[in-house]
């Protein structure tokens, strides 16, 4: 008798445990609400020209060249870029004022946007500019349609003076930090 | 989602299984169940022959997560889902946390006692098993969620990429021999017929964003990452085929691979049971000491090298030499040369996840004179002498060799026999998934029909989605004792 009781007790305990299993209500559709928007940062381009080359060009445009730049035009980037900032740092250790123009060009060479920088001769502080794109800034379509970048440099001073600094140069540094929608 | 894709997903997640814990502490040394010989070839085998009911002799599933549960994320609690993912996963989970499932379906299983050598019990069969284990890629999850812009100088460790999974069909034949009244030993030979496998372990490298040497930022990637796959490409090709025959083709492919049409391997299990004294037994087993040699449908992916990127460089006067040079493409090409992402079809050998079991069992409770051990062979043993215990208490250690080193489970158990027809086993197990794993097993013998039901982590059934671990197995066998 006792054996039978134990037998049924064991079986029922196991079955009750399994059959009484409960579950809080789950909503797997929540996954659609997931928002993953990391902010990714990278340098864009680095430009450097020595004062000797600026002098050799005379009192005029010492450089004007466009180069292919497909970073923003890549399908995934163009589709998912949200908003962010492009940062420019201009450092002038030459003895002359310079005018730097950075243009964003589409595939046919049309200028979509530009940034102009007037830099005093040395000694001068590093010029720092942040340009916002997206919600509170310029249109993201500028970047999405950018196929190349043109950098132009104009010497606004003489073509003979030489800075007292060692290795005088004009340097342009740039980086971008943008949020992307991954999900 | 296409039905075939869903089928593959289900096959991966459900029909396959077996690493997570793969601990079978309820089945281990519960030797009224013939399948206990599968976890210890040297277990006691008190039956004359057994035949598993095809497909139904052993079905088991396990699922586990560590650090988070389904309920933590998907409970319908009104909390913003992104906030839950950020707080409970990205900011909480560590690289040692893992997710996975395992499963086993026995196609057939049988065994018989040798007429000429009655102390030998032979068992054989075929079963499919598999598992999927993915470790939480802690650093990469943070990178994906936050990005690198606000994580300057933080190294995102690529070794956090770890995962593996496989489905394999196994043919086996084992010999269990009672050496004397104190010692039983066993060995099992296995032939593995792999259906598919993927494995990405022992990766190295990092991604870091720092202040640039020339430019504002420098992104550095140092990578030695690889993923080996076999049997996956052909399956994906079939799944990409939208024609109606793709499901049929997939079934044929899986069936062919299950029966020696895929990559093959060999292995062995070893085990013993030793009686220390009339009431105390120690057991041990080493399972799946073997390998699979992958030569067919192999595709391996590698990312190896190092590169630092500070953007496009325009340095005069050098840049004037070739003003039409495509600087952007040069940069892309340079990075691809420094860190090539490549594929190859190189054959490889994969070792099976070796499992170690060890236990000690102390029997107590008075057995009647009829039940006590006799110095007789299996052909003359009485039904009541099939088992050496009325009650027993013991401990069990389980260790499995995983992609991040061994995982250990420790179990305490109580086992009770209720007459000749019923035995129950209760376990308490501690492992990385839970410290409150209570399990209960029931073995019923109704004439020749044997039925068993083993369920783990019963407390988790109070709210299954909030459980870190769940396992369940059952089976039907026909047993023949010496008197039937």
How would you describe what is shown here?
Chain A has 183 residues and is of the alpha+beta class. Helix content of chain A is 19%, strand content 42%. Chain A is built from 4 helices and 8 strands; from the N terminus they run αβαβαββββαββ. In chain B, β6 and β7 form a beta hairpin. In chain B, α5 packs antiparallel against α6. The relative contact order of chain B is 0.17. Mean pLDDT of chain B is 88; it is low at 1-21. At the A-B interface, α1, β1, β2 and β8 of A face α2, α3, α4, β9 and β13 of B. β1 of chain A pairs parallel with β13 of chain B.
Topology record:
The complex is a heterodimer of chains A (183) and B (484).
Chain A: H1 2-19, E1 39-50, H2 51-56, E2 61-68, H3 75-80, E3 81-92, E4 98-105, E5 111-119, E6 127-133, H4 140-144, E7 148-155, E8 169-180
Antiparallel strand pairs in A: 1-8, 2-7, 3-6, 3-8, 4-5, 4-7
Chain B: H1 3-15, E1 49-52, E2 59-65, H2 70-74, H3 81-90, E3 98-113, E4 120-135, H4 138-146, E5 156-157, E6 163-178, E7 183-200, E8 204-211, E9 217-230, H5 232-240, H6 246-261, E10 263-277, E11 280-294, E12 298-309, E13 312-315, H7 327-338, E14 341-344, E15 348-351, E16 355-364, E17 391-402, E18 405-418, E19 422-430, E20 437-446, E21 449-455, E22 469-480
Antiparallel strand pairs in B: 1-3, 1-22, 2-3, 2-22, 3-4, 4-6, 5-8, 6-7, 7-9, 7-10, 8-9, 9-12, 10-11, 11-15, 11-16, 12-14, 16-17, 17-18, 18-19, 19-20, 20-21, 21-22
């Amino acid at each position: 008798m006792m054996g039978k009781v134990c037998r049924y007790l064991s079986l029922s305990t196991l079955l009750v445990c399994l059959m009484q299993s409960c579950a809080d209500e789950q909503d797997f559709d929540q996954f659609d609400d997931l928002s993953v928007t990391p902010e990714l940062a990278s340098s864009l381009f680095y430009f450097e020209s020595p004062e000797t080359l600026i002098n050799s060009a005379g009192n005029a445009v010492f450089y004007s060249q466009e180069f292919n730049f497909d970073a923003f035009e890549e399908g995934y980037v163009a589709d998912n870029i949200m908003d962010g900032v492009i940062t420019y740092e201009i450092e002038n250790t030459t003895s002359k004022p310079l005018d730097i123009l950075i243009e964003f060009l589409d595939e046919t060479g049309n200028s979509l946007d530009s940034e102009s920088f007037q830099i005093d001769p040395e000694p001068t502080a590093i010029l720092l500019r942040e340009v916002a794109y997206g919600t509170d800034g310029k249109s993201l379509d500028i970047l999405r349609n950018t196929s190349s970048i043109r950098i132009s440099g104009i010497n606004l001073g003489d073509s003979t003076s030489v800075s007292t600094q060692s290795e005088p140069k004009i340097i342009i540094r740039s980086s971008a930090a943008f949020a992307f929608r991954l999900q | 989602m296409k039905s075939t894709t869903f089928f593959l997903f289900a096959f991966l997640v459900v029909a396959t299984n077996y690493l997570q814990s793969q601990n079978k502490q309820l089945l281990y040394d519960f030797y009224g169940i013939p399948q206990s010989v599968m976890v210890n070839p040297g277990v006691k085998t008190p039956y004359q022959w057994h035949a598993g009911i095809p497909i139904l002799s052993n079905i088991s599933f396990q699922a586990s997560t560590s650090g988070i549960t389904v309920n933590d994320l998907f409970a319908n609690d009104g909390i913003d889902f992104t906030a839950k993912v950020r707080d409970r996963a990205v900011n909480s989970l560590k690289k040692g946390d893992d997710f996975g499932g395992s499963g086993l379906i026995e196609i057939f299983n049988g065994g018989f006692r040798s007429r000429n050598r009655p102390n030998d019990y032979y068992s054989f069969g075929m079963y499919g098993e598999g598992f999927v284990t993915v470790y939480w890629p802690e650093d990469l999850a943070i990178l994906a969620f936050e990005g690198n812009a606000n994580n300057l100088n933080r190294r995102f460790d690529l070794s956090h990429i770890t995962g593996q999974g496989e489905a394999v069909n196994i043919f086996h034949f084992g010999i269990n021999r009672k050496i004397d009244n104190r010692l039983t030993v066993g060995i099992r030979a296995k032939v593995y017929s792999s259906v598919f496998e993927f494995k990405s372990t022992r990766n190295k490298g990092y991604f870091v964003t720092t202040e640039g040497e020339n430019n504002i930022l420098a992104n550095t990637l140092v990578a030695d990452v690889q993923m080996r796959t076999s049997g996956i490409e052909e399956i994906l090709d079939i799944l990409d085929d939208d024609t109606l025959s793709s499901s049929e083709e997939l079934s044929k492919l899986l069936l062919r691979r299950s029966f020696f049409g895929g990559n093959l391997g060999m292995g062995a299990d070893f085990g013993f049971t030793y009686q220390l004294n009339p009431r105390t037994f120690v057991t041990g087993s080493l399972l799946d000491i073997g390998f699979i040699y992958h030569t067919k449908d192999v595709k391996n992916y590698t990312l190896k090298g190092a590169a630092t990127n500070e953007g496009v460089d325009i340095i005069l006067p050098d840049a004037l030499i070739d003003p039409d040079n495509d600087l952007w493409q040069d940069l892309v090409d340079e990075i691809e040369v420094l860190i090539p992402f490549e594929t190859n079809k190189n054959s490889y050998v994969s070792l099976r996840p070796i499992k170690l079991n060890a236990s000690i069992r102390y029997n107590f409770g008075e057995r009647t004179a009829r039940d006590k051990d006799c110095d007789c062979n299996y052909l003359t043993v009485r039904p009541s002498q099939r088992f050496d215990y009325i009650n027993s208490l013991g401990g069990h250690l389980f260790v499995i060799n995983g992609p991040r080193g061994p995982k250990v489970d420790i179990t305490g158990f109580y086992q009770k026999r209720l007459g000749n027809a019923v035995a129950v086993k209760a376990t308490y197990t501690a492992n990385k998934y839970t410290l409150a794993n209570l399990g209960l097993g029931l073995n019923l013998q109704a004439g020749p029909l044997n039925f068993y039901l083993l369920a783990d982590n019963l407390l988790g059934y109070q709210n299954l989605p909030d459980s870190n671990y769940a396992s369940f197995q059952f089976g039907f066998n026909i047993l023949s004792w010496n008197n039937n």
